[in-house]
Amino acid sequence: MGIFLIILLVIFLLSTIVGLNSNKKVAEVCFEILKCSVVALFTISVCGIINISSPQAIDVYRGRTTLEITYKDSIPVDSVVVFKE
Q1: What is the structure's pLDDT at 51?
Q2: pTM of the model
């Protein structure tokens, strides 16, 4: 997540520099910066939502998981923690 935010910041800064170096009006550059900011904030919020909904280790203690055990000839050979939807 941190690397993703750094990449977004670099893209934002590069677009700002390119916008300021071109022969555009200040209002056009400000509008481009605003567009980049909106896209960056939207992307960060979507990544945050995806990160929140992914299973975490604490979910075992909160009762959000079940344990499935695989038996072979009545001997447990494997177990898997399954996240409840």
Answers
A1: 63
A2: 0.39
